[in-house]
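Model it.
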Amino acid sequence: MDIPEIGAHLLSTAELRATGRTRASIEADLREGRLVRVYRGWYMDAAYWATLYSEGRQVAQGLAVFGAARSERAIASHTTAAAFLLLPITRISPKKVHLVSARANGRVASDRLVARHRADLTASDVTTRFGVSVTSLMRTVCDLIGHLPLESAVSLADAAMRSVAWREDTRTYDAVAAELWRTEMREHLARRGGARGIVQARWVLEFADGRAQRPGESISRLYLERFGFDRPRLQVPVTGPNGEEWVIDLGLDDVPAWGEFDGQAKYTDPQMLAGQSTAAAVLAEKAREDWIRGTTGRPVLRWGWSHIASPASFRRHLAAFGVSAPVPHLRIHFEVPRSTF
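Modeled.
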């Protein structure tokens, strides 16, 4: 997600008027679907808005709210902070911008477009991203993982841990850094005592693993846990025919099999294709899979977003390939408190 690009597409009333639009023409563009009103006095081209996922829309809304200068002393929090911190907001579509002010009464005063939270913040709870004051990574994760649907919470926690422990320059995962972060998170959660959502938050923290590269992998391993599989190894290296190192998403050692989560972007996103055509990428992936299957003696199971739409659909997909849970179904359920998300 390119936050400066999103900001560049955000237009104020004054900017629209400078292009020759009148109040009447702006209203006509809104009615006819050419413009979207992001916040009072701030707009975006509807075609561009349609390309944004939840994270991008939260960023656009947050920039508009701060641009309106009504909340200049407030700090972006919860899902809005998560978006600015480049964390995934999976399977939810927040309707409001979340702001927090440094008071300790714990109440929330919301209107139609902005949720205003009150909380006791320390200096370490606040950081700046792209010119916007937001709650820190640790504070944001603590605020959310007990109050989101479990799939969303696990995806967020995995991504946060990855941002701490993944070293892009060496393409390695720092397990020590991950565990230090988990320890500090435990301390943060401990200070919340018996707050609503704390049971889920603690479970999610212990389950979190920053080796999951994307939300689809996070949700997949959550469902595998629910089904009773052993926790899979993540990002398992396999040596290719020319000594190159390939990485498999999940190693299901108790079946045994390999699991690969494939989003469409792998074969369509120019950045991920890195100059290859879609056809070349598909052929290369087939050759890779044949080698892995032949040298390890394990089948390679593939799935995408449609297969993990629900636990039931994922279970059916695995069963179609002769893979079933080795132990009876485990019930993982937490009551998610009502929230303003």
